[in-house]
């Protein structure tokens, strides 16, 4: 691989700028913000670091060829020209992800098949035999993307999505993606120098990502699988040094991180996840309803991901969101409170005007990530008819 090289780190819509900032802090050069991705330049060390240290990257691609291809034959001929022997061992394995949009090459499976044929033919012509395809556990995973007539062939340095941090043992019915949770924490501006609370924490994703950020624990600390560790040019010493440096850069955290939820069952799952991440000394978990929330004194940041309207009856959702609003006004004085929700109607029942709204996607659901500043005097709770709890 060349000394300095272009990389593309993928992320979720709305997190591009945060990811660009993370990449910049790691020394990325010529950073360009794309749609759900960030393009940048750097050396091999930067590639390893982005995989290990960027909290908001989903995967990092290394483009090795960009060309025009109006049909399958043009694609085949261009892929044949790539020096695949520089990347794949003759006795190694590879797999291909094909993605196509607005192109004459309409089927992504066919795109992948044509790419595979060209790679196989190049090896056969040169060596009389070829590496095998292994879709489950390839040594080299190749990403081929055709957009209109432009084709980008990349090596996938992450192989498995980086949201798979390696600490998660279990989930509740609607867990937040870890990359999204980390992105929300970074977007909120919480810097680890105050308390952090999630009063509807489910399986604990937000408290865990918050603790990892506050203690400067690499998001990929518990991951074993990366693509680049099986590449021909893998630098084992450099990789070990990056991990050792990250270990030495851990920080102390002097405040409190609290996760609570009404469900004892889901909290048990959260506990297993917290223990698996080695964070039981940093995160306190409590079984309680939002209206009994007891955030630590001294202020801080509250971020929560309440249930959205889909699985819950309208009356219950109204009640829940007014309870969230009341709790924010009466208990979270001195806190910045953030809520992610796709339910615009329900959000009206919070009864507070957000000071910021950022559009994010929770899976396929377009959602708002809303900030509420809770000052003294925000305490007034609107009088409304309380609907009895069913549980
Ligand atoms: C969308 S889930 C949160 C998922 C979580 N972010 C995760 O990653 O696992 C919403 C959570 O709110 C909890 N919940 C619902 N009503 C509540 C209430 N009144 N007080 C506290 N928690 C509540 C549910 O038990 C559920 O775990």
SSE arrangement, N to C: EHEEHEHEHEEEHEHHEHEEHEHEE
In percent terms, what proportion of residues is strand? 15-25%
CATH architecture of the largest domain: 3-Layer(aba) Sandwich
> Which spans of ≥5 residues are poorly predicted at pLDDT below 50?
382-391
Count the E strands: 15
State the CATH superfamily name of the largest domain. Vaccinia Virus protein VP39
Helix content: 25-40%
Total helices: the number is: 10
The side-by-side strand order for the widest beta sheet comes to: 2-3-1-4-8-7-5-6
Q: Remind me, CATH topology of the largest domain?
A: Rossmann fold
Q: Tell me, what's the shape?
A: elongated
CA-to-CA gap between the ends? 60 Å
For the record, the count of structural domains works out to 2
Question: Which class do the helix and strand fractions yield?
Answer: alpha/beta
């Amino acid at each position: 691989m060349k000394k300095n090289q272009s990389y593309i780190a993928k992320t979720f819509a709305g997190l591009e700028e945060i990811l660009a900032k993370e990449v910049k802090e790691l020394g990325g050069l010529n950073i360009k913000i794309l749609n759900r991705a960030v393009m940048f330049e750097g050396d091999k060390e930067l590639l390893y670091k982005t995989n290990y240290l960027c909290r908001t990257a989903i995967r990092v691609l290394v483009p090795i060829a960009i060309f025009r291809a109006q049909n399958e034959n043009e694609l085949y001929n261009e892929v044949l020209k790539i020096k695949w022997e520089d990347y794949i061992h003759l006795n190694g394995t590879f797999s291909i992800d094909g993605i196509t949009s607005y192109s004459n090459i309409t089927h992504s499976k066919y795109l992948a098949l044509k790419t595979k044929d060209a790679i196989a033919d190049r090896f056969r012509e040169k060596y009389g035999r070829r590496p095998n395809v292994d879709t489950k556990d390839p040594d080299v995973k190749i990403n081929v993307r055709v957009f209109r007539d432009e084709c980008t062939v990349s090596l996938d340095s992450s192989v498995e999505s980086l949201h798979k941090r390696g600490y998660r043992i279990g989930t509740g019915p609607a867990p937040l993606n870890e990359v999204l949770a980390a992105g929300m924490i970074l977007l909120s501006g919480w810097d680890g120098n105050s308390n952090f609370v999630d009063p509807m924490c489910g399986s604990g994703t937000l408290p865990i990502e918050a603790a990892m950020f506050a203690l400067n624990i690499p998001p990929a600390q518990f991951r074993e699988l990366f693509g680049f560790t099986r590449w021909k040019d893998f630098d084992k010493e450099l990789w070990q040094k990056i991990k050792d440096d990250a270990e030495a850069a851990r920080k102390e955290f002097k405040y409190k991180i609290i996760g609570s939820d009404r469900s004892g069952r889901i909290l048990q799952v959260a506990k297993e996840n917290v223990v698996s991440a080695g964070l039981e000394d940093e995160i306190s978990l409590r079984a309680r309803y939002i209206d009994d929330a007891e955030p630590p004194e001294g202020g801080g940041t509250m971020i929560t991901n309440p249930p959205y309207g889909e699985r819950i009856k309208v009356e219950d959702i109204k009640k829940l969101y007014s309870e969230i609003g009341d709790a924010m006004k009466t208990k979270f004085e001195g806190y910045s409170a953030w809520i992610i929700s796709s339910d615009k109607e329900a959000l009206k029942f919070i009864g507070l005007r957000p000071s910021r709204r950022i559009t994010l996607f929770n899976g396929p659901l377009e959602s708002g990530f809303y900030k509420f500043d809770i000052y003294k005097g925000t305490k007034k709770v609107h009088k409304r008819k309380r609907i009895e709890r069913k549980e």
